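Hello, quick one for you while I still have it in my head. My current little project is about how a certain protein chain folds up. You're getting the sequence in one-letter code plus the fold written as tokens. Would you mind checking whether the tokens look sensible for this chain? Here's the protein in full, and shout if anything looks odd to you:
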Amino acid sequence: MAARPRTLKNRKLPPNLYPNGKYWRYRNPITGVMTSINRPLDEAVKLARAANAKLTALIVDDGALLTMLTGDRLPTVSNLIKRFRDEWLPDRSYAARTLEEIKFKLERYRQDLGDRLIGQLDVLAMAEYLDNFSNNAYTKHRGLWVQIFAFAVAKGLAERNNADLTLVKKEAEKKRQRHTVDGLSTIVNAATTPPWLKRAIRLALTSLQRREDIVTWLKSAADMEKNTLTVSPGKTQGYENPVHLKINMGAALRDVVGDCLRSPIVSPYLIHYKPKARRREQIDAKDHWTSVTPDYLTKEFSKARDAAHAYDNVPTGERPTFHEIRALGAWLYEQQEFPQMYIQALMGHADEKMTRHYQDGHDAKQIEYVEVSAELAF
């Protein structure tokens, strides 16, 4: 809520009392909710002063201590985020990894803004917080905050959606350059690249799977005796005919899967790592303490890429990311003269006719795996 305009009519009004036609409105300084007061000026002023005397005592720096002393549950941003997570998220049909990313963002908001009262998170405060993020990140965080505030309004915790009133930005066009074999090899062979990340790079290159599928790939999907690796690409699971692949592993893919399985860290995931610090909130937000989130994979790859000086001749904003590994892998398969249909099937890009052929005649709960091969030499 913006500050009350300094007009002659408003000058004598107590704080939080606003004109409303011939009557008045009172703004709760804690929740930001406006309440109509259909009384004459004298009575409205008395009510506003009495409300201010009662509510301003609650506005202190240490909201947690006040809650402990009084037993009241203050309408803090932390409580809002908890309710949003517990009451709103479970009803959404998000993929497991998307849900994990949202929970990570919510935890960050709790740490950054959790002690504030909801009423204090007005349009100005929301805009200032979002401006801490770069263009594309700004857009994603703003979108989540719009949903959080929509929930708050629906639950009577806020009067309006302050996030929705912030500036809408257009995502910047991505101008990433492609990976080269030399560039990616430099990153993989660099001493500064963590072992788990080296495995992730090799797994992505040889399997052609997306970032989200690389970090959620379970060890149980690998059958070393039969030399197969199964995967259900997450991006296709919302399709009418989801794609499920059973990959016959070539030497390079089998080698990296073997490395993943031999890791001394106990984890259900092929790609995993041991965090330097294990904060409780971070552990609770992940499926397993060793799991790697898509965002963390992207950030760590960028750090390793720059530490290895693989693309120092490319402007920082145009250097290839982990996402571009998939494109390099597809190109290498072409260079090694694998058929286009082979590559498309491995990438989960089977055309509608192929997908229908593989899925026809099966119950909705039954999974029919499409057998493909991954025999890239790298």
Observations:
- The domain at 181-374 is CATH 1.10.443.10 (hpI Integrase; Chain A).
- The first strand starts at residue 17 and ends at 20.
- Residues 68-72, 352-364 have pLDDT under 50 and may be disordered.
- The radius of gyration is 27 Å.
